[in-house]
Amino acid sequence: MKKRIVILGAGESGAGSAVLALKHGFNVFVSDKGTIKDQYREILDKNGIKWEQGDHTEKDILSADEVIKSPGIKEDAPIIVKLREKGIPVISEIEFAGRYTKAIKICVTGSNGKTTVTNLIYHILKKAGKKVAMTGNVGNSFAMAVAEGSYDYYVIELSSFQLDGMFDFRAEIAILMNITPDHLDRYDYKLQNYIDSKFRITQNQEKSDFFIYWADDPIIKTELAKKEYGGTMLPFSDTSSKNMTAYIEENELIIDYPHKTHLMTIHEFALKGRHNTYNSMAAAIAGKVLNIRKDIIRESLADF
Fold it and tell me: At 270, which helix (H) or strand (E)?
């Protein structure tokens, strides 16, 4: 008997999940309470995937072995409540697609800056001639990229909603830019719930993995003091150099990984402003961790 996967929401992540699930031999059904856009309907039809729109047919959904839900669907939606009551696992597209790739996943989250950092890292890896896809919250679905391509690297922008549906997924490189109160209506108006969601990016990390983060963020600081983390910690700061992997000294960006490198001056960055200094620092650390040559990282940050 083929395992039955139901996908709720037929947008970018839903269509990608459907194609990937079909490729791996699942019985696939897609249900969208709204109207499915033509481009996604075409993908489903081309692949012979059954779908419905305008409603959720409960008997078809509650017969699933596993459900992949769009990040836009809230936890308290009636169909999600019923699935939980039946004990049917509900996961995100990112969790599902992560099972089917051995590539290195560079995952970026934060209340601000995550799109810029995702784009910067993608730019560095492209310039270095790597087989890389940019996915997640920033455009193409991770699932579709896994279904279609033989990539060696995925740079994935992750929202808190995507992180909420991730359980066994492991980021080889996790990047947390900052945390400010956001989307609290989705988190029972409790800031800690939102913080916990963002920190899910570090779950399952092992010693061989890396956690890059902004060391001056007061919320991140408080959270890091609470427990040990699995990955190698790589903090960055523009106010202090003590124990930092990246810092600014006399307007120069220093990366202290794996050994001390004077990379470039902040005046050479293509992106100006303090927040973009942080974005450039995070991307540069990721580049060094991935053994990208210093001149390529420097060029990428200067011509982005």
Answer: none
Report the pLDDT value the prediction gives residue 140, as an integer from 0 to 100: 87
Mean pLDDT of all residues in the chain?
Answer: 96
Element (H, E) at 38: helix 38-46
Q: In degrees, to the nearest 5, what angle opens at C-alpha 250 toward C-alphas 300 and 212?
A: 50
Predicted model pTM: 0.95
Closest CA to 286 of 272, 300, 275: 300
What is the spatial distance between Cα 47 and Cα 205, in angstroms, rounded to a whole number?
A: 35
* Beta strands at 4-8 and 66-69: parallel, antiparallel or unpaired: parallel
Average pLDDT over residues 236-250: 96
**Residue 274 Cα distances to 199, 249, 266, 267, angstroms:** 24, 14, 10, 11
Tell me which DSSP letter residue 37 carries: P
DSSP string, 109-156: E-SSSHHHHHHHHHHHHHHTT--EEEEETTSS-HHHHHHH---SEEEE
271 C-beta neighbours (distance < 10 Å), count:
15
Nearest-angstrom CA–CA distance, 116 and 107: 13
pLDDT of residue 97: 98
